[in-house]
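Q: Given only this backbone (141 positions), what sequence would you predict?
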């Protein structure tokens, strides 16, 4: 038996898409639909035009757009190596697991990938680069 067809993309889903409040799988489904349908792109533009200005400029909307509560990349790196105060670690865990910030989760996944790629051969190569250019850093000629 074939899988049931995914639900149609209605205006409410498009509003949530514009607000970036859909789960990642649903965002991807809407984006696929938008790429394949000129009429859906036109409906998205109609929904965008029909949004009341008050929702675009609310404190919450501005806060979310500017990601004011998001830790920066350096903080996320420090979080991975557990080099933060326990309170700060608790906040980042809350931000990642309860708020489920898609930006920070993607950033953290990228950092984890970089840490995983930091193999012994990478470390040896980095040490060789440093030693070969060490003379450029010293004041001695």
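A: Predicted residues:
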């Amino acid at each position: 038996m074939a899988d049931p067809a995914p639900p149609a993309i209605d205006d409410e889903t498009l509003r949530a898409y514009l607000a970036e409040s859909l789960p990642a799988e649903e965002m991807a489904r809407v984006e696929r639909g938008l790429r394949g349908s000129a009429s859906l792109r036109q409906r998205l533009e109609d929904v965008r035009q029909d949004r009341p200005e008050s929702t675009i400029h609310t404190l919450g909307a501005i806060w979310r757009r500017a990601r004011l509560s998001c830790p920066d990349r350096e903080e996320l790196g420090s979080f991975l190596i557990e080099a933060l105060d326990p309170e700060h670690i608790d906040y980042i865990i809350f931000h990642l697991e309860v708020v489920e910030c898609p930006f920070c989760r993607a950033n953290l996944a990228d950092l984890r990938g970089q840490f995983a790629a930091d193999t012994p051969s990478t470390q040896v190569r980095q040490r060789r680069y440093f030693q070969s250019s060490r003379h450029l850093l010293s004041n001695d000629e």
